[in-house]
Amino acid sequence: MLSFSPKKNLSILVHFLGWIMLCVVLLLLSPLSWRMGEINLPIQYWFKQAFLLGTLIAIFYSNSSLVVPRVLLKGKNYLYLLIIILGAVIFYGMIVYFEQISGYAKEMHATFNSDRPFNPKKRWLPGDVFQLLLYVISIGLSTSVALVEKWQKDESVRRELDRQRINTELSYLRAQINPHFFFNTLNNIYSLTNLDVSKAQEALLKLSRMMRYVLYENQKNETLLSKEVRFIEDYIELMKMRLSSKVRLEIQIDEPKEDLVIAPMIFLPFLENCFKHGVSSQQESNILIKMEIMGNTVFFETKNRIFPINQDSPEAHESGIGLVNTQRRLSLIYPEKHRLKFGKDDATQQYWVTLTIDLG
Prior knowledge:
transmembrane; phosphorelay sensor kinase activity; kinase; Histidine kinase; Bact_2-comp_sensor_kinase
């Protein structure tokens, strides 16, 4: 069965209305300007107008469907120009031939100039110029329509390719984030098994809840902000279990009041870096994690000191792909709708991150 999209239906309607307007101009407005109440136009005139309209329609669609795609869009510009010129000659010859076989010129002369002798070799120059002008207009409009349709098709293909590329790239980035996240988390639980088995068991329960979030939500393009906030809180609670009394956490996280949606696990690399670099077993350390939600805007901030990582720790050999991936995800998902800044304060030896995302 044939199916018509709204765009295709609209295109058909526009073409139909356009030809209706041309019919009105050729068949009604022009004769009305000739004082039709006083002049009875011969039947040959109406045959000529119908023939002219049909010829223009054939020229329009032949040019837009055949000549432009197969000649002009192939880069054969001179051949296209030659075809257009030959088409004009053929069009003019067809009009002259139709007038001769239908007796159009003789009948029109009798209608408008009955007091003068008829000369079959003499033509009305303004009428020929007007007909050739209609040909040029038909060629120009059909060429423009064909080029616009080609541009729209190319643009649609380009957007589809961009969408597929972005989806593929995001899937790849998410696939990188998951092992990175689980590596750090399992390393934390491994450390707990040497200190407190019950805490390790509790950590595994929390991890299983977080894994459900990763398995079901991280495979989607977006999730509820409220779910992302609960994931962050679970992650922080999990990290608390391995922290000593030397670490002071300052957590300020707003509860989402609306059903806002966000890309899943977008904040995780910043949290990981806080606990990876901001914790020391020898010195006092402070970690700030703050999230404010104002309308459709989320403001996220972290601050932590930077301590050297034990070279015997598996974390020391990580390349930091989490932060790089997050920057790339933000640029793909929230172009022009996010602001990410980060840096190090040399005076306090604190590393800070601020991220603002407009979810509207």
